[in-house]
Amino acid sequence: MKTSEKEIINILLSTYNGSQYLEELITSVLKQECVTVHLFIRDDGSTDKTKAILNKYRNLNEIQIEFGENIGWRRSFMKLIQKVPYQKEQFYAFADQDDVWEPLKIMHAIEKLDTSKPAVYHSNMTLVDNQMNFISYKYDKDFLPSSKIPNAFFDGIGTGATMVFNSKMLKLLQQYTPTAATAHDAYVLALANLVGKTVYDSNSYILYRRHNNTATGFGGNKVSKSPSLLMRFKRYRRSMKRPYSIRAYQILQGYKNILDESDRNILKYISNYRSNIYDKFYLLFSPKIRATGLRQTLQIKYRIFFNTL
Questions:
Q1: Residue among 161, 36, 152 at smallest CA distance from 100
Q2: What are phi and psi of 107, to 5 degrees?
Q3: Alpha helices (H) along the chain
Q4: Which Pfam families does this UniProt record tie to the protein (predicted)?
Q5: What SS3 state is found at 182?
Q6: DSSP code, position 203
Q7: Beta-carbon count within 10 A of 294 CB
Q8: CATH 3.90.550.10 residue window(s) in the chain
Q9: CB 283: neighbour CB atoms within 10 A?
Q10: What per-residue confidence (pLDDT) applies to 35?
């Protein structure tokens, strides 16, 4: 999408005890070039200096800040999605409190977004340590994620801090509020793959910090791009979370009437497998139920077997 005048980008940021790097992130967001930035911040009950830092920005017209109770980052981002004003022909994005954006991050996304249907852009990331030293790129340059169901639903590709979406996508998201805590980025990307369009950019325009206080993921400064399969299996066994089945259930609750029948049936299998042995066996043994690649498929089958999908 080519533009001749400045587009408006509405950026959604949930903060929690993020004082160490927050100002650096906000500075890079406000310095986005070729766009007009509106920043919507919800603090999720921080107990460090985050609130004091945010108060420095309260008088800026381009920033709106809400200090809320601690409900967790998943629900906090969902609140932001529901509260941000819908504006036709504008764009929306997520931000994480630890990162640094390159000046043309948003403009590169807008240029690639389709505006004729609900659409989400996401990109590669540059992984850095606490001191901003390069670790690696998140994905290889020739990597191309699947947008087909069920692969795309299981792959877990797409980090919120890289996502930009159009007003049609926001309108769709605001039609239903999930009743259970679910990761905003995985939810948004799954819905776009089901009823809209996704665009992946192999380039990176964001420095994504990996450190021990990261709210999501495994964190850490290790050079390894991802934890070992054994480490993941151990975590899945301990975890009571069921992100995929919760996400499937929530999407069915809000959007089943606009889903293709085949996609709707797959989501029903995923949503019901813990209480329906037929659905569980189908997920375990059907060759259609897989992720992209053997490693990710093994993780999914493992989670199905131990009821942590």
A1: 161
A2: -65, -40
A3: 22-30, 50-55, 73-83, 105-112, 151-155, 167-173, 184-195, 229-238, 243-255, 261-272, 277-285, 294-305
A4: Glycos_transf_2
A5: coil
A6: E
A7: 9
A8: 7-209
A9: 24
A10: 98
Q: What percent of the chain has pLDDT over 70?
A: 89
Query: Cβ(118)–Cβ(197) under 8 Å?
Result: yes
Q: Please say if the pLDDT value at position 22 is more than 70.
A: yes
Q: Which fold has domain 7-209?
A: Spore Coat Polysaccharide Biosynthesis Protein SpsA; Chain A (3.90.550)
Residue 220 has pLDDT above 70, yes or no: no
* 3-class secondary-structure state, position 197: strand
Cα gap 183→246, rounded to integer Å: 10
Say which residue, 232 or 20, is predicted with more confidence. Answer: 20
> Given this model, what pLDDT does residue 216 score?
47
0.70 exceeded by the pTM?
yes
- The reported pLDDT for the residue numbered 82 is 98
Query: 283, 297 in Cβ contact below 8 A?
Result: no
Task: Work out the average pLDDT over 60-83.
Answer: 98
Hey, how many other C-beta atoms are within 10 angstroms of the C-beta on 141? 9
Among 188, 141, 134, 133, CA closest to 162: 188
What is the distance of C-alpha 304 from the center of its chain?
Answer: 23
Encoded tokens for 272? 């019901």
CA distance 39 to 152: 30
Per-residue confidence band for 221, with pLDDT thresholds at 50, 70 and 90: very low
User: Which two three-digit tokens encode residue 147?
Assistant: 């947008």
Tell me the pLDDT band of 223, cut-offs 50, 70 and 90: very low
CB of 163 within 8 A of CB of 93?
Answer: yes
Among 83, 81, 35, 82, residue whose Cα is nearest residue 62? 35
